[in-house]
Amino acid sequence: MSNKQWTKIIIVLVIVIFAILVDIPRLPSWVPGYKWFSDLKVHLGLDLQGGIHLIYETDTTNIPEEDKEYAVEGARDVIEKRVNVFGVGEPQIQTAKTGSEWRIIVELPGISDVGEALEIIGQTPTLEFREPGDLSSLTEEQISSISSWVYTGLSGQQLKMARLSFDQQNRPQVSLEFNEEGTKLFKEITERNIGKPVAIFLDGAPLSIPTVQEAIPSGQAVITGDFSITEAKELAERLAAGALPVPIKLISQQHIGPTLGKISLEQSFFAGLLGLILVMVFIIYFYKGKGVCASLALIIYCLINLAIFKLIPVTLTLAGIAGFILSIGMAVDANILIFERIKDEEEQGKNSLVALNSGFRHAWTAIRDSNITTLIVCFILYEFGTGLIRGFGLTLGIGVAVSMFSALTITRIILEIFYQPKIKTVKV
């Protein structure tokens, strides 16, 4: 074999060994980096781990149309922060729009105390403006405590609007607008705190601590700073959650016990293993030696895929496993295209090496076009779908991308090794 072939073999072996180390749950301590590998976990979704699935309906009736998305996203951020404080592992909190109605979908895998979680999530966001007390002798940690600041009477109830805007130099900032009562309070607060900080707390945590530059009697203000667009948008959304309280109503609650999740996981594993075995039997029956090579490449494909799922990490759901199993069939489909092209070349009297190279070259365009169209669909499912649909699109997309590498590189290397004795005896 040429040096180029040996290089490919070594690269593939390194990838396979790394994938195996990632996939093995527990490694012996003598393996280099065993602790890092052992810390990698398979992240299971709600339907496999058990937990609770909640759907909240938001009431945006009294909110201007242009502010509804800000308010709902802000409420989502507040819920996410509360859930994180509660200590739920791998929570999924997202918004969804159905017609003109906005909903917040909350998935809490592995949760044990449903009642407490519902109580925490259902709280109304509390936004407060506070002025400094005696901060001179306090530590930075104490300054971040709400008890170190004096409540001004100004809250989210008086804040009409908070949104992302841009100054004359096109730098992002956050614009605030108060109602009549808030305008009066804000004027008094800024008059007595010129050159001093005024803290904005959301649910008892400091959200922003801007410094007052001048008295503001108009009830309209901006928060400036070294913001990125993302940071300014996030601050505006969180302010909007308190400024424009979005009442939420629980309309659906589904509790999945850990036993049911375990059964689903076991059945999914069995389905995946059975699918892999049947595909291997099929391809070996029809393509003999080439099928054995493809089956070995398919096993390597599965090892690489599972390693990627742990490294990203991907939260596996039933739909995600379905996407992975489907990608196994698509990986074999690429091999079948290649084998049929090789057979056509051999039937024309070409020797093994020429038929092999020509088969891969002619099959490439069909493999490329079919996989690119599938990847486009996967992108659409992931980008615009929600929940289980996103998981399906993600695992299928990863599987399709890896299958192209598996079919065109790994399968080819194995076939070249398999054909090597024949190639040596043929003059091209």
Q: What does this 3D model show about the protein?
A:
This protein is α+β, with helices and mostly antiparallel strands. Helices cover 58% and strands 18% of the residues. It is built from twelve helices and 13 strands. Helix 9 (258-311) packs across helix 10 (318-347) and helix 10 (318-347) packs parallel to helix 12. The longest helix has 54 residues, at 258-311.
Task: Please describe the structure with a list of short key phrases separated by commas or semicolons.
single chain; 428 residues; alpha+beta; Multidrug efflux transporter AcrB transmembrane fold; Alpha-Beta Plaits; Gyrase A, domain 2; 3 domains; 4-stranded antiparallel sheet; 58% helix
Chain-wise SSE layout:
Blueprint: H1 3-23, H2 34-39, E1 43-44, H3 46-49, E2 51-58, H4 65-86, E3 92-98, E4 101-109, H5 114-121, E5 127-132, H6 140-143, E6 149-155, E7 159-166, E8 172-178, H7 180-192, E9 199-202, E10 205-208, E11 220-223, H8 229-243, E12 248-256, H9 258-311, E13 315-316, H10 318-347, H11 352-384, H12 388-424
Helix pairs in contact: 1-9, 4-8, 9-10, 9-12, 10-11, 10-12, 11-12
